[in-house]
Amino acid sequence: MKFKQILNNGLFVQTFTVIVVNLLALSFGLIIGWTSPSMSTLLSDETPIVSGPLTIDQISWIGSLTHVGVMIGDIMAGVLLLKVGKKLIILLFIMPHVVFCLSIYFATEVYQLYIAKICGGITGGGSLTVIPLFTSDIADKKIRGALSSMLLGFLHLGVLVGFIIGELFNYHTVPLVMLSTPILFVLLIGTFPESPHSLIEKNKIEEARASLLFFRGRDADKDSIECELKKLQISLKMKSNNTSDKLKLSYFATPEARKGILIGIFLVIFKPITGSTSLATYPSIIFKSTGSYFSPNTSSIILGTLLLLGTIITFIFVDRIGRKMLLSISAIMMGSSLLTLGVFSFFKNDLNVSWISDLSLSMAVLSASIGIIPLPFVMIIETLPQNIRTVGSMCCTFLLTIIAFVVLKCFPILLEAVGVGPLMISLGVICFIGMIIIKLIIPETKCKDLLEVDEMDSLK
Fold first, then answer.
1. Where is the signal peptide (predicted)?
2. CATH superfamily of 1-192
3. Residue 243: which pLDDT band, with cuts at 50, 70 and 90?
């Protein structure tokens, strides 16, 4: 009886559903985590590539082409969102992951690795665009922040698992292990319906009512279900009444739309230029530059563990202390850690301070993972008005990918040109500047209905 009550509990159903859809994010994390441990094989005489060991230039393309795939996946998701439901889109984006695994397994030419990484990026672009929208569609406002933070949690879990299986298994076994994720995903995705938002947009009101009842729990009050359904219909009225089904430029001209877009642009710029993306991509290079005691492989696993730990902390506190406060704390902690790392790097040859550098770098990664890395995906959805939320989030993801690509290309060059000290100090200063901007322009949307978020500015 108790087990049946659990299954009928809306919060349990929502949590289980979000876990299932985030297996797509886990798949993308595995693709990111595959890169680091595979480099040693690809650069050695044991490489499966018939032309011989890869060059550093080829390795850099393998690392960066993932972001090209993310941009393609983002565009594909945006187009599909105008045509079909979010659940179907999430299912479709698991296919590039399968192509990635098969391409890696059978690759004998370097261009096949390029294709594999682009396909892997497509899975990432789709997951980063659609999963936040699907989660916000089904989540109760009390746990929406926690469920939304699962995206980065599963992404970081995938990165960590990718690091570990890359160490435990040989090159050709790793992609076979990675194929287990899409198999599990396909088996579980049929256990829940399409989101009520998507069904209302297609004018399937009865199916939307059944979907809402499923996600709120079979024992939910029927009057509250009808009330929420009515609110959803009202919030989506502009779309349903638009017979051309095309986005109007006037939607972007409202004060709340302009504010939401500016906040989204700030968040997607702030995230990579703080160095959070670079710390997650070049851990071995940075650890080596600071004179760390850890080996490159060990440092990668430490990084993956800290990223996952930070996401768990976010999951616990995001709906308790709020998005704005958590993002501010993250910026302050990361800025302080980077400044400490930068200052002490000047004395690494004179003093035995490598443990301080290791601790500072670890704290910087942990600090980034509790706010700067995960929260932009949550806050962009919650600050954009409903009628531009889909297109706006897609554009923000696309912009984030472009900026991340540029930052990741420039970071190793800057690290070599100016040194770890000046670069880390500069990133620390950026964190503190960003914290001030957060205090000034970012609204708090904790525990607010998305319809309330849409109306906040217009009611002022």
1. none
2. MFS general substrate transporter like domains (1.20.1250.20)
3. very low
